[in-house]
Amino acid sequence: MKICKKIVIVGLGLIGGSLGIVLKQKRIAQEIVGVSRKDSTLREARRRKSVDWCTKDLKKAVGNADIIVLAAPVNTIIGFAEKLANSAPKKCIITDVGSTKEKIVRAFESRCLNFVGAHPLAGSEKRGVHFAQGNLFQDSVCILTPTKNTSRGSLLKIKRLWQAAGARTLALAPEKHDAVLSLVSHLPHIIAFSLVDILPTGWKKFVPSSFRDVTRIAASDAQLWQEIFLTNRKSLAGNIDKFIRALQQFKAMIQKQDSPRLYQSLKRISVKRNRL
Amino acid sequence: MKICKKIVIVGLGLIGGSLGIVLKQKRIAQEIVGVSRKDSTLREARRRKSVDWCTKDLKKAVGNADIIVLAAPVNTIIGFAEKLANSAPKKCIITDVGSTKEKIVRAFESRCLNFVGAHPLAGSEKRGVHFAQGNLFQDSVCILTPTKNTSRGSLLKIKRLWQAAGARTLALAPEKHDAVLSLVSHLPHIIAFSLVDILPTGWKKFVPSSFRDVTRIAASDAQLWQEIFLTNRKSLAGNIDKFIRALQQFKAMIQKQDSPRLYQSLKRISVKRNRL
After folding, report:
1. What percent of chain A has pLDDT over 90?
2. Of the N and C termini of chain A, which has fewer Cβ atoms inside 10 Å?
């Protein structure tokens, strides 16, 4: 079902490439156009038919665009606010897939662009159009971050775009999004990185599947996550402290050999985890 | 290939049940006998043919046993030291699958039992003979913890038992085992429990796959893990501190917005994780 004529996806990595594939499958627009700076990505996107056509030329790509999806790391998305203030068609809706939202939304709204913030909770530690697949968003959640400046019609279109991609959409204010994500996503990444950091060299042979599962996401892209951590630093620092307090409570129970309380805590938490 | 006539597995949970299945498949003994206190477990073990026969009666089961494998939580294993001092045949080799080793090995050696400590790094947050499967140990590691009191012949037999089950064996002193495991296994569990603990109720809908992966093991059995944490408390407390220091280093880099150092750390760690 078509929602518009032309969608431009800027950035053809795992997220942008996968979005192109599924939006083409669902025939959501007459034309899906891709933009990438890298020749190798453009070649691979063409080979995989992730988009109808693609180019390095942002200005050329966004001509007559109805929707522009910025699928790039946080700081790169922020950098597009100025570029698009000059080049994007007036009525065009601009949206993104960035992992933090407050700074991104502010950058676009301060330039009076017709912006709808979005964050698909999908992806993995893998990166690049090579790993793109049409079912990446199937049964996932996409958080939209409308503000008082967001047009109702634009919000509805971006909602329908993500629903067509297979996601369930939820709405949160940008600040609330960043507070929630700092706990459910950014903190787990800091934890995984920290745990791998303290593994002594030579202990690889002792590493069980539990350690591998907890640290899988420590293989994530350093540049991408550096930007996420720094654009959400206040909320993240607060959650690191909260998490350290939880660890210290366990440490105290263990050192005091408070077996009944330790058992009760573990029991309560394992029930909570089983319900997730 | 037979290594002896009779093996008795005491405890028919995920580990004991799976071991029974694979040792029967490999025809490693003439007779594989199971012991469990629970009627439902005995019924299920019979239905799945996890062992040749099984009983509640420990004394009856261990008569003429060549090898007794204690597949139970740590404190239950320790409790068997006294029971088996009276009932186990003189030449019988006693071994176990406990997740901490120092206290277990001491309990058996102090009673001059012919003991070989073992810890298969396999299993999952699942529990019970219902989940038992013959390939559970395939390509896993089993750590053996011989001491100066361990007979060479006994060690070799237990090594061949685990190799027949599909595991690669490594040897570590019991204290070294506990130090290593407190970091590669017990700490990840404390981390997972702590992270689930601080998730606010009602945030389930925002939980992405990264949070699920990091906390999968928080669904583990409370009693089992309480015993593991308490029997390895000194080493575990030290590693909780070490991990908190790593978290605090990240927090400092994030708060100072030390982007180059943060990037370098994340990059170094993601390379390290990819090599695991």
Report:
1. 92
2. N
Q: Do the beta carbons of residue A113 and residue A94 sit within 8 Å?
A: yes
- List pLDDT tens digits, range A27-36: 999 999 999 9
Rounded CA-CA distance A255/B190 in Å is 13
Rounded to 5°, the CA angle B21-B37-B233 comes to 85
Half-sphere exposure of A238 (CA within 13 A, CB side): 9
Asked if residue A81 lies in contact with residue A106, where contact means CB atoms within 8 angstroms, the answer is no
**pLDDT at A144 (0 to 100):** 98
**Mean of the per-residue pLDDT values of chain A:** 95
**B123 has a pLDDT exceeding 80:** no
| Residue A148 at interface with chain B, using a CB cutoff of 8 Å | no
Q: Pick left, alpha or beta for residue B112 (phi over 0 → left; psi -120 to 50 → alpha; otherwise beta).
A: left
| A164-179 per-residue burial string, b: 16 or more CB within 10 A, e: under 16 | bbbbebbebbbeebbb
Interface mutation target, options A143, A213, A261, chain B, most CBs of B under 10 Å: A213
The tens digit of pLDDT for each residue in B201-223 reads 999 999 999 999 999 999 999 99
For A254, the closest of B183, B230, B269 (CB atoms) is: B230
Q: Indicate whether B107 pLDDT > 80.
A: yes
> Which two three-digit tokens encode residue B81?
């030291």
Sign of CA dihedral B90, B18, B158, B221: negative
CB hemisphere CA count around A6 (13 angstroms): 17
Count of Cβ atoms closer than 10 Å to residue A206 Cβ: 20
ipTM over cut 0.95: no
Mean pLDDT calculated for residue range B140-158:
95
| pTM (2 d.p.) | 0.89
- pLDDT, residue A196, reads 98
Q: How many CB pairs under 8 A join A and B?
A: 245
A138 touches chain B (CB under 8 A): no
What is the C-alpha radius of gyration for chain B, rounded to an integer number of angstroms?
21
Find the range with the poorest average confidence among A39-48, B181-190, B261-270.
A39-48
Nearest to B6 by CA among B52, B55, B56, B43: B52
Per-residue confidence (pLDDT) for residue B87, from 0 to 100: 92
DSSP 8-state secondary structure symbol assigned to residue A200: P
Task: Report the SS3 class of residue B265.
Answer: helix
Q: Write the residue in A188, A229, A250 that is nearest to B262 by C-beta.
A: A229
Q: How open is the CA angle B228-B234-B237, to the nearest 5 degrees?
A: 85
- In B170-209, the residues whose Cβ lies within 8 Å of chain A are 170, 180-181, 183-185, 187-200, 203-209
Q: What is the pLDDT of residue B232?
A: 95
